[in-house]
């Protein structure tokens, strides 16, 4: 299994996963043209993508979904509540391309098993995904205010993670957002801070874990270097050997990560 985080941040999110038999996307929160460009950057084409998995209805996750579905004819998977919440936001998608995929289920596509799981976020019914190929697992865990004990059990000891490090708490508190928005982000239905993301990663990682990507950084309330240093320091304080036992990678809202074997 190979993975590239094509884009991750408050402005748009897209992740690419491939196996010998399948090539899929999680979310398409950028314009269709930008997603095409990012795919080109990693030496891939959207013509070969055979499924698109949607996590929830927020615009930074669905902006390009309709365009890609209509242009390339790929099936789009989301749960019923998310489809209802999306409504007409992405235009019309042919009914035969709209697939229902509910939380807590596993979809098998030949050599790829896709496991959906619910998260705590202020959306209709947000869910993220863990991908399994042979004995390897890659889990995406962003857009959540916290990780439940049940989720820890589901996602424990994957080979790679995309973990949320959305904001620095002090930058958020001192920033220009309205107090109501600050409360939403800090709540159990908001986003993981740098510190929370580090602690979540520590709880999840195991002997198999070799790659952790830090994702969904806020443009206004975080900095890439700050997120990386904060997470690394917290891990080192727990005697976890960052960039030795596993690699800690940054993501970007405009630049795709290298297509990497999981």
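^ Assign residues to that structure.
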């Amino acid at each position: 299994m190979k993975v590239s985080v094509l884009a991750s941040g408050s402005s748009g999110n897209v992740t690419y996963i491939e196996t010998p038999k399948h090539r899929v996307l999680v979310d398409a929160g950028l314009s269709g043209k930008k997603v095409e460009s990012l795919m080109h950057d990693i030496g891939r084409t959207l013509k070969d993508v055979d499924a698109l998995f949607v996590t929830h209805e927020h615009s930074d996750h669905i902006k390009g979904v309709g365009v890609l579905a209509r242009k390339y004819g790929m099936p789009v998977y989301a749960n019923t509540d998310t489809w209802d919440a999306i409504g007409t936001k992405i235009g019309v998608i042919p009914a035969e391309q709209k697939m229902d995929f509910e939380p807590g289920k596993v979809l098998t596509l030949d050599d790829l098993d896709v496991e959906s799981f619910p998260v705590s976020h202020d959306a209709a019914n947000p869910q993220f995904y863990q991908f399994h190929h042979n004995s390897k697992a890659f889990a995406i865990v962003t857009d959540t205010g916290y990780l439940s004990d049940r989720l820890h059990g589901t996602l424990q000891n994957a080979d790679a993670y995309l973990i949320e490090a959305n904001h620095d708490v002090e930058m958020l508190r001192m920033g220009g957002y309205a107090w109501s928005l600050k409360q939403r982000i800090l709540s159990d239905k908001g986003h993981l801070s740098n510190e929370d993301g580090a602690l979540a990663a520590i709880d999840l990682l195991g002997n198999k874990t070799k790659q952790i990507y830090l994702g969904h950084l806020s443009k206004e309330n975080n900095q890439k270097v700050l997120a990386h240093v904060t997470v690394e320091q917290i891990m080192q304080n727990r005697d976890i050997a960052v960039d030795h036992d596993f690699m800690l990678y940054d993501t970007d809202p405009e630049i795709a990560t290298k297509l990497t074997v999981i």
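The chain has one domain: 2-256.
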